[in-house]
Design goal:
With 562 residues, the protein is α/β, with parallel strands linked by helices. It is 31% helix and 20% strand. Strand 11, helix 9 and strand 12 form a beta-alpha-beta unit.
């Protein structure tokens, strides 16, 4: 008598091997048998005609705050994800003295667009050190397993105080203290550390992230501290343009050589430097050929902003005539924006000068598109607002107002920021062909009111499976590949003895729904939630956590300590 048997499914085991139709037996948290199983079970799931895959592993999320107050790490857990890694991009909430809480909240608010009131309300601050933060996370059951990175930004503020915010160089004594904190975190179970070297990461006030100019000696010490504590990876996000990608990548290779730590770095195809990503991809492949584990993490589709009246941003948010009505509900706002006098003012007011949204200067009408339902992540160039305006002899502002105010203000405009320079998904496809590159950058839990990319896993299976990529290889890229990168050997594959983290999927019905705005965060905060269809069941540690997208109430997920 087994606890659970999944019968007759098409098994894609996470190794890239061809599918087979067999049964899976589960007892407790583990898979105990795979094959033709004649025994009975307390529960049986009929998976005939369905895909059975390992649970997905997401190496780049920001549920650092949500994991404190919420047991359901949605929307990632709605898309088959059963293990997440948080603490990326050098931002997080530990270590942290009471006097520095506002500083770390302001940094997370600016870098990851998680509003301060939500964090002030949701964080209970029962910790100061990173090990104490892990203890706080461990106290809450969840629908997924949670692994953590030590955020360099928090470490720097903790050690250097105001000097960190001024971007001062750390002294040898301060560097030694950071190394010791990294050792302590790794020994307590952190899966590594993260840092940011990009000018796009700023507080809401426009101040740069404290780690922006951290010197090589400091970064090396951070990585060596992980080695002192038993291991872990270093995650880096950078602009790669000081002075050029090869120079900074050489520094990363030296850090790897000095510490022995695997390194992951964010790789996007920028629209302003359209070939830099190719150089970085080649540099990482060369490092791999030399035995150096320095792997890029890339998005499988454009990273884009959703602009709408129900979100936090729209193209007219900087206009005085819009600010007068910004407090109204979306439907009332849409009606007010359609009123002829106000509409005329909106069409002529300066949208940029009054905006508090730094990315507004990077958005052009030629890269804004109707989003639609189902959502379109690869819109044709001739469907842009600029192209339509030219065809219809109208202004782009006129078209944008029409789109935003339709359907009582419920629609979104999609504005790709990266990986869409040539109006195709070619950059993501090229990365997907490179075995050294990891699928990721969903940012689940972050940018909650204008980006919704926690559906990356479902997109990979729905879009790329029809574009010449073999389904078993796509599943491998979502399961055993990221699990291996994290140093996890107990998941990511379907095999006897491994954790029973499993998805049962109706591939013919698999789809991404349009995002919707929910007001379910602390302090009444809002966030974009994007459900999926086609996940018949998700199983975490042997227990069914979701059936047809509906939570069962089971919360077997736990904090992972490396």
């Amino acid at each position: 008598m087994h606890d659970l048997i999944i019968r007759g499914g098409t098994i894609i085991d996470g190794t890239g091997a061809a599918p087979i139709e067999v049964d899976i037996a589960i007892d407790g948290e583990r898979i105990t048998a795979i094959g033709r199983i004649t025994a009975t079970a307390r529960e049986t799931i009929n998976a005939h005609g369905l895909l059975v895959t390992p649970g997905f592993v997401d190496v780049h999320t920001h549920y650092d705050g949500q994991a404190v107050w919420d047991s359901h790490l949605a929307p990632s857990s709605w898309h088959g994800v059963t293990t997440v890694l948080v603490g990326n991009c050098g931002v997080g909430f530990a270590p942290c003295r009471a006097a520095d809480r506002d500083t770390l909240i302001a940094l997370m608010e600016g870098v990851e667009d998680i509003p301060g009131p939500i964090l002030h309300e949701g964080l209970n601050w029962t910790w100061e050190s990173f090990p104490e933060y892990l203890d706080a996370l461990e106290a809450r059951p969840r629908d997924v397993d949670l692994a953590t990175l030590l955020p360099h930004g928090a470490v720097r503020v903790h050690v250097m105080g105001e000097a960190a915010l001024r971007l001062d160089d750390a002294t040898p004594e301060q560097i030694a203290r950071m190394r010791d904190i990294a050792r302590e975190a790794a020994a307590a179970g952190a899966f590594g550390a993260s840092t940011s070297r990009t000018i796009s990461h700023k507080t809401l006030a426009g101040d740069p992230t404290p780690t922006l100019r951290a010197q090589e000696a400091e970064l090396t010490a951070l990585a060596q501290g992980l080695t002192d504590g038993g291991g872990g990876l270093l995650e880096i996000v950078s602009d790669w343009n000081t002075p050029d990608p090869a120079t900074e990548f050489a520094m990363v290779r030296r850090i790897h050589a000095a510490s022995g730590r695997p390194i992951l770095f964010s790789l996007t195809a920028r629209h302003d430097r359209t070939e830099a990503w190719r150089e970085l991809l080649a540099l990482s492949d060369a490092a791999a050929a030399d035995g150096a584990s320095i792997r890029p993490v890339f998005p499988p589709r454009p990273i884009g902003i959703l602009l709408g009246l129900s979100g936090s941003q729209n193209p007219f948010a900087g206009c005085d005539s819009y600010k007068d009505i910004a407090h109204l509900p979306p439907a009332a706002r849409a009606a007010a924006m359609r009123e002829p006098t106000r509409r005329a003012r909106l069409l002529h007011e300066d949208r940029i000068a009054g905006s508090t949204f730094p990315l507004i200067t990077r958005l052009s009408w030629a890269r804004m598109f109707p989003f639609g339902d189902p959502p379109n992540y690869a819109p044709a160039q001739n469907t842009s607002i600029a192209a339509r305006a030219a065809r219809e002899s109208r202004t782009p502002e006129d078209i944008a107002l029409e789109l935003l105010t339709a359907d009582d203000g419920a629609q979104f405009i999609f504005a790709p920021l990266t990986n869409y320079a040539d109006y195709t998904l070619a950059a993501s496809a090229e990365c997907l062909r490179h075995p050294n590159a990891l699928v990721g950058l969903s940012d689940g839990g972050a940018h909650v009111a204008f980006i919704s990319d926690a559906s990356f896993q479902t997109f990979v299976l729905t879009h790329w499976a029809g574009q010449g990529f073999a389904l078993p290889e796509l599943v491998r890229r979502l399961t055993s590949d990221p699990a291996h990168a994290m140093g996890l050997s107990d998941r990511g594959r379907l095999a006897a003895g491994l954790l029973a983290d499993i998805n049962i999927i109706d591939q013919s019905a698999l789809a991404i729904a349009a995002p919707r705005m929910a007001h379910d965060l602390p302090a009444g905060g809002k966030r974009l939630l994007q459900p999926a269809r086609g996940y018949r069941a998700t199983i975490k540690r042997g227990r069914v956590t979701y059936r047809d997208g509906v939570p069962t109430g089971a919360l077997p997920g736990r904090l992972l300590r490396r």
